[in-house]
Design goal:
heterodimer; A: 326 residues; alpha+beta; Multidrug efflux transporter AcrB transmembrane fold; 2 domains; 13 helices; B: Multidrug efflux transporter AcrB transmembrane fold; Hypothetical Protein, Haloacid Dehalogenase-like Hydrolase, Chain: A, domain 2; Gyrase A, domain 2; six-stranded mixed beta sheet; elongated
């Protein structure tokens, strides 16, 4: 079986990734500033998990739903902010009702009154979700704690396994991804709920996975090429992992794309965030995580300073250099 | 890296086959699996409520209502204890979480202190792990006495109320005849109730939220109801409304003749004369004695049957009821009588319960989600398998076999562990499929690189594996950390995702280290390749 698509990728790409930092860094900074700006100005479209309130999903069993009619009916109940929208197809309708004043008991009354108003004929009640004020507050706190705890734990792990520059670099790249993902939620108005926290944590995991793979190679090359300039060394490392990075991103995107298209309406915002996260994570492990190591002075930038290390280069390294030029 | 002892080879292959066997039941429907012989594994993955439909309710025991109840009991205890000793007092009242009063006779303050001290009962302390009083008694020399509920005392009561509530809720839900409800403590003061496959969440809510405290009271004859409405109920009496419309007030004695906790049984039925739906009840032995005595002493007087502070009916005692059984009638529908009987049999809740979170999914949506998850899973998996096969040829095939075993392992682990599969869980599995090939890609790319560096094919494979495994471990542990933290945060859907993600990471590293390596080792052994297929 000699056929293999992978051979179409350049065997040894020599892209100057570190030189690209001249535009990659400003681009990243601009994207982060825009994300944070929109996040600060508009905030997130918080779901009931964090804001409290009621979500009801219904399906009309006798033809397409009259979204406008349902909205008019529900507005008579005076629940304040009521959103009625079509959900996936023309018979499914999602109703969102903001948290009612009067504590947990008051939220329960909402479901009963909506059922009484819309009636039971021709309507299938597919889902009720009611989150009271006490629980929503706790979930919001727990979500923030989870993201911070994950970042902290991973920082410690990388610190232990690598040098401190790597830990800082990985965290910068990860925070970059988290901010851009928050930006996606803020700009698109995608609902931000508990599964969005799950998406962010998975993005953190995925992006770090990518970053660690590159760093692992950087560490190896640092031992192997004692005198190589840091720019060249990082370029070499990123280039040699490039086909892997692309392959893994593609397979993950195939899986996520299938979920996005066929996995149903309920997890669509979750997969949308994940797809964005994989793209951003891949970008950041190449264009952010690598170049950041230069700024963190992992190795002196000039070869004169580096040459004061007296050790002999490993034999494997020299032969590798020779063969790679052939 | 490429040598496997024969027993290791056998073990890995056996493990792979076993994982497929244990994942098998999930590929068939329940009826088919039941016909399998006993030695075949039959455990299927438990589907989450979002997939099979059902109700998830988080209930909170109301601390304030418990405090209020305890304060009322404490006030009555103080009153009785001081009266028995004929110690005069004034201004018996509630002050926040304390009962306050003033001893009139300053000479007897010391004596009062001893009496009040005796009202405190020791409880298990959460903070110190030892006994501490549930009430602190503070009597100053100027006669001002203050009995304050302690945090330990309230906590102990909350914990007790949660335990009792779980018992009562279990008895009530068992009567609904649904399969395998989950009822468990959540945090300090909450109860999580999950009932799969329930059509009518409203009925469940009604069953959960009704306290169902039944009691029998004599009516107060100290003043007329009208007079009490105009002024206020005299000490020891209270005004309660009737359940029936139009609402009618009753003035009843606060002290109950007998309470519902003495009931031995309650059944719905019909009155033989009026054909009205009723609830027939029977007291236990001691209850029957008390009831018999009370009815004997009060023949000819009306008494009120009170449920949750509302009067169901107020019949006149015509004759002493000595057998300990009787019936309650009150314009019930048959269904209402049935539910009331369930509630009475299951006993009263020790405190008010509030639903603080509700998530109900209808069976239709659940089925749709399963279908969507399956379609997305199959298409995604085929896409990844095709892409790997096309990209890496023979090695891609190896990776695909490893991936198949990997997914079998995840499904087998979920089945055996009895973990719950949710829609986000399916997403987690599919994400693992996408990321699982990563470990294989890392290995293959490393092998290619070693060849480029001038190593011989077999040596390149050997070194490639060794170098790549370190990277795989480092990379996956970081993702595992994120997954474990998600598990800790774990509410419902998020936990389902974290469980499959965490299991998936472990199985991914495992299959890369065993399956892929074994297949390549066997290939190397049989073909002695001089060139890579990639």
């Amino acid at each position: 079986m000699a056929f293999a698509l992978i051979k179409l990728l350049p065997q040894q790409p020599k892209l100057r990734f570190m030189a690209y930092r001249n535009w990659a860094f400003p681009l990243s900074v601009v994207m982060m500033v825009v994300s944070l700006g929109v996040f600060g100005a508009l905030g997130l479209n918080l779901g009931i998990d964090f804001r409290g309130g009621t979500v009801i999903e219904i399906r009309t069993t006798d033809g397409p739903a009259d979204v406008g009619g349902i909205r008019t009916q529900l507005n008579q109940l005076q629940f304040g902010d009521v959103e009625v929208q079509s959900f996936g197809n023309d018979t499914d309708v999602l109703i969102r009702i903001e948290q009612q004043p009067g504590g947990d008991q008051a939220q329960q009354a909402v479901v009963e009154r909506v059922r009484a108003e819309l009636g039971d004929t021709g309507i299938e009640y597919r889902r009720f979700e009611v989150v009271g004020p006490r629980v929503s507050g706790e979930l919001a706190v727990a979500g923030v704690i989870a993201v911070l705890a994950a970042l902290g734990a991973i920082l410690v792990y990388i610190w232990v396994r690598f040098e401190w520059q790597f830990a800082i670099g990985a965290i910068i790249a990860t925070v970059h991804d988290v901010i851009l993902t928050l930006g996606l939620f803020a700009i698109t108005g995608l609902e931000f709920n508990l599964s969005s926290i799950a998406a962010i944590l998975t993005i953190v995991g995925y992006s770090l996975n990518d970053t660690v793979v590159v760093y692992d190679r950087v560490r190896e090359n640092l031992r192997r090429y004692k005198k190589m300039l840091i720019d060249d060394l990082l370029d070499l490392s990123v280039n040699s992992m490039l086909s892997r990075t692309i392959m893994t991103s593609v397979t993950t995107l195939i899986a996520l794309g299938s979920l996005f298209l066929f996995g149903g309406e309920i997890i669509r915002s979750f997969t949308a965030a994940m797809i964005w996260g994989v793209l951003v994570g891949t970008y950041s492990s190449i264009f952010v995580a690598g170049p950041v190591l230069i700024f963190l002075k992992l190795r002196p930038a000039s070869s004169a300073k580096a040459s004061d290390s007296a050790e002999e280069p490993e034999t494997a390294a020299t032969s590798d250099d020779g063969s790679s030029k052939a | 890296m490429l040598y496997f002892a024969p027993w290791k080879t056998a073990l890995i292959i056996a493990f792979a086959i076993l994982s497929v066997v244990f994942a098998m039941p999930n590929a068939f429907d329940e009826e088919t699996v039941e016909t399998w012989p006993d030695f075949a594994p039959q455990q299927r993955i438990v589907l989450g409520l979002d997939l099979q439909g059902g109700a998830h309710m988080l209930l909170q025991v109301e601390r304030d209502s418990l405090v209020e109840d305890r304060l009322e009991v404490l006030r009555d205890d103080v009153r009785t204890a001081l009266r028995d000793e004929r110690i005069g007092y004034t201004g018996l009242s509630f002050q926040g979480e304390a009962v306050q009063l003033r001893i009139r006779d300053l000479d007897r303050v010391g004596e009062a202190r001893t009496i009040l001290d005796a009202l405190a009962t020791p409880v298990e302390s959460f903070t110190l792990g030892q006994q501490s009083p549930d009430v602190t008694v503070d009597v100053s020399n100027d006669g001002l006495a203050r009995l304050t509920l302690t945090a330990d005392g309230i906590d102990a009561r909350v914990a007790q109320a949660v335990d009792q509530s779980i018992e009562v809720i279990r008895r009530r839900i068992d009567q609904l005849g649904t399969t395998e409800p989950t009822i468990q403590r959540e945090g300090q003061d909450r109860v999580l109730v999950q009932v799969p496959g329930l059509d009518d969440p409203q009925r469940l809510k009604d069953l959960l939220q009704q306290t169902a405290a039944l009691s029998f009271h004599l009516l107060c004859d100290e003043m007329s109801v009208d007079e009490a409405l105009r002024t206020r109920a005299p000490a020891g009496c209270e005004l309660l409304n009737s359940v029936d419309e139009p609402v009618q007030p009753y003035l009843i004695q606060s002290r109950a003749l007998i309470q519902g906790d003495q009931l031995a049984d309650a059944q719905p039925g019909f009155d033989q004369n009026t054909q009205e739906a009723i609830v027939q009840f029977r007291f236990n032995t001691s209850g029957a004695t008390t009831f018999g005595q009370a009815t004997t002493e009060n023949v000819g007087l009306p008494f009120a049957i009170v449920l949750d502070d509302e009067v169901i009916s107020a019949p006149v005692i015509r004759e002493p009821i000595l057998g300990g059984s009787g019936q309650i009638s009150g314009n019930f529908t048959p269904e209402l009588a049935n539910d009331l009987a369930i509630l009475l049999r299951a006993g009263a809740l020790p405190a008010d319960l509030t639903i603080v979170e509700e998530r109900t999914v209808g069976p239709g949506l659940g089925a749709d989600s399963i279908a969507a998850g399956e379609i997305a899973g199959v298409i995604g998996a085929i896409g990844v398998l095709l892409f790997m096969g096309l990209s890496y040829g023979l090695f891609g095939l190896f990776a695909n076999v490893a991936l198949f075993v990997n997914v079998s392992l995840i499904l087998a682990a979920l089945s055996v562990l009895g973990a719950t599969l949710t829609l986000p869980g399916i997403a987690g599995i599919l994400l693992t499929v996408g990321m699982a090939v990563d470990s294989n890609v890392l290995i293959f790319e490393r092998i290619r690189e070693e060849v480029r560096r001038g190593r011989k094919t077999i040596a390149a494979i050997d070194v490639g594996f060794r170098e790549a495994l370190r990277t795989i471990l480092d990379a996956n542990i970081t993702t595992l950390i994120a997954a474990v933290i998600l598990l800790q945060l774990g509410s419902g859907p998020v936990r389902g995702f974290a469980v499959t993600l965490a299991i998936g990471i472990v199985t991914t590293v495992f299959t890369a280290y065993t399956m892929t390596r074994l297949m390549i080792a066997l290939w190397v052994k049989s073909r002695r390749p001089t060139a890579l297929p990639i």
